[in-house]
Design a protein that fits this description.
Elements lengths: L3 H15 L13 H8 L14 E5 L6 H7 L3 E6 L2 H14 L3 E5 L13 E6 L9 H11 E12 L27 E3 L20 E3 L3 H11 L1 E9 L11 H7 L3 E8 L8
Parallel strand pairs: 1-2, 1-4, 2-3, 4-5
Antiparallel strand pairs: 5-9, 6-7, 8-9
Length: 269
């Protein structure tokens, strides 16, 4: 699926990897305890042994989550749009002496995997990079085993396109309509990569709003049951109005879910 959406995301993430952006830096200092803490497994209620579990890190290249799961004994695959990101996962595999399989492509098409291939699908922030989240959910449901876990971290749709720069002296001004597939774009935050050393200017992200009703109903329709939900806020104690930390405390920009795939629960017998 190499449409304009694919081409834009491919070019942007290749550029981000070249600029050594935060989400492209491999985790090279993990042990098993640090791996569990990094993934937040206890916080998410995922307490079981992962040894031998088949895990897909979806749109999750860069050698971060894959390293953590591999150290915990999982059988790890990584699917990502960026070849450079996947190279980081291969580097992590060599660093820790583990096996990690990598697959390049668009998360809207997971046909390279057989049905029921995975016990866990771990999907960090990337859902808003495609227009219709339901296409991704359908693909995820096909390749996840019955009873399998789907971790999803995505943009908080109520604040999509809003940043700390929208502080008006009293609050943060909403500017975009709350609608599915509304397009937003904004400059990368200064902590994403060193913009003074990035060379060619990296294109801003193009993101598509996914309303909470589309996300929730899209997953329910595919047979998922919700087990955990949180809104990610700042942990910074110094909350200066107009700062990134204050913004995330007032308008949490991310949401996190744990869903389990049970497609027959709501079907009449």
């Amino acid at each position: 699926m190499k449409d304009d959406v694919y081409r834009y995301n491919h070019a942007r993430w290749e550029a981000l990897a070249k600029a050594n952006a935060l989400f492209t830096r491999p985790k090279l200092d993990l042990d098993k305890e640090a791996a569990r803490e990094y993934l937040g497994l206890e916080r998410l209620g995922v307490t079981g042994d992962l040894t031998g579990k088949h895990v897909l890190c979806l749109a999750s290249g860069g050698g971060q989550q894959s390293a953590a799961f591999a150290l915990l004994g999982a059988v790890v695959s990584v699917f990502d749009i960026s070849p450079s990101q996947l190279e980081r996962d291969q580097a992590v595999a060599g660093h820790y002496g583990v096996a990690i399989r990598v697959f390049q492509g668009d998360m809207r098409d997971l046909s390279c995997f057989e049905s029921g291939s995975f016990d866990i699908i771990w999907h960090p922030y990337s859902l808003t990079f495609v227009p219709d989240s339901r296409v991704v959910f359908h693909e995820v449901s096909r390749i996840l085993k019955v009873g399998g876990l789907y971790h999803l971290m995505c943009a908080n749709p109520f604040f999509s396109g809003l940043t700390h720069s929208d502080w008006n002296g009293e609050g943060y001004t909403l500017k975009f309509p709350y609608e599915d597939e509304g397009v937003t774009s904004y400059p990368d935050q200064e902590w994403v990569y060193d913009q003074s050393e990035s060379g060619d200017k990296i294109q801003q992200p193009i993101e598509y709003r996914q309303t909470l009703s589309r996300i929730m109903n899209g997953l329910i329709k595919e047979g998922f049951l919700l087990a955990y939900f949180s809104e990610i806020k700042s942990k910074d104690e110094e909350l200066l109005p107009g700062s990134w930390s204050h913004f995330t405390d007032v308008a949490p920009p991310w949401m996190e879910f744990i869903w389990y795939y049970h497609p027959n629960v709501f079907k009449l017998k």
